[in-house]
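Per reviewer request, we include the raw input and output of the structure prediction for the construct analysed in the revised manuscript.
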Amino acid sequence: MARSSISVFAVSRTGNRGAASMLESAIDNLSPGENGCDFNVFTVYPRDDAEFPKTGHVTLFDGTPASLVFRIIPFCILYRLLSAVGIKLRPESMTPGMKALVLSDAVVIIGGTTFSDAQLFKIPYNAACLLPAVILGKRSMMYSQTMGPMKKRFNRALSGFLLPKITTVVARGSGSLENVLALGLENAVYFADSAFTLRVPDETVKRIRERYAPMLEGRKVVGISVNSIVEGKCNKLGIDHNGSFVSLIEYLRGKGYFILMVPHSMRKKSRLRHNNDLYTVDDIMKRLSSTDGIHIVREPYDCKELRVIVGLADYYVASRFHSMISALCAGVPVLVFGWGFQKYREVLEEFDLERYCHQGRELSGENLIRGFEDVVSGGAEIVKKIDANLPRVVESSMKMHETARKLCIGEAGSGSR
């Protein structure tokens, strides 16, 4: 059997390491072997991704919003119209990206939060990422992601039109599944986030642990991943986001903890705060009485290296979604303060740990400290729950990859609701 080809939209290999971990997991699990899949990644950060170490069976193309709107979607419309009147464009007459897309066996959309009433500004982009597959009539799949709610008219109309045309729509939690089923979809299933099956090489684990051992050995470590999006939302509500984390860090240092600041989304060459948590971290550092006992992870580690770093902590405070998943995968008790509350909670529900998930609008120094002590007091029980539930969640994530593989060879994979 020949290798299959998958075109991927709405993701990158750099920038937001959480979204990257979803993509890398798909590559890890679908590309190996003679009958594996080749990946055409239409990345949102083509320049940054071009510097990413080249990987076999992965080819990068420009998948920025501008490229989608002005090149990819118009080409798909033209190709479909010409095909309807019997005119077939020869692959050699197309650009490399369009050739790869047209010859793909399937199209996969790997987003984070899509078609959500809380993020109406993103819905046109969500739609644009689906349109190439819909226009070309490709077998298609939305990898596990948070979806909805879809009660606002504009969102409900657009999602209700496009989602039924996708072969398989995967929700990554019970709330998301309920939201898409409310549209009357028959193609919606639940699978756990693909990042749960990210494969981290032993060499990477050994290298990172050896690098950090002299710094962390003999210390109780608290990892913290702040989120520039949460910071912005808090600021609009008059909540002192950075001051709240200053209070938490000062408290933790007073208790003798070593602090590991882990920017889980980082674009060192960008001056923008989007997908760039270093600015938030640096603002917090400026407000501390001292930076002793704190290490900031400034190296542009990839998502697999960051997973190992998260696992070095004894406790973790997460505002980045996939840093939470890395903590769960490493068996680290985790406290969550996130803005997209639904996506955090529905994943933690799979571990019976939703009590440790808090809404971003509740953020304060006092609540961070209280929440952290709650995690410490329940630490042993938290670890037991992670150990008990993680194998089932990993199995669910793996079934999603199996569904994608079946999709590529023309079998409609089935999921479990």
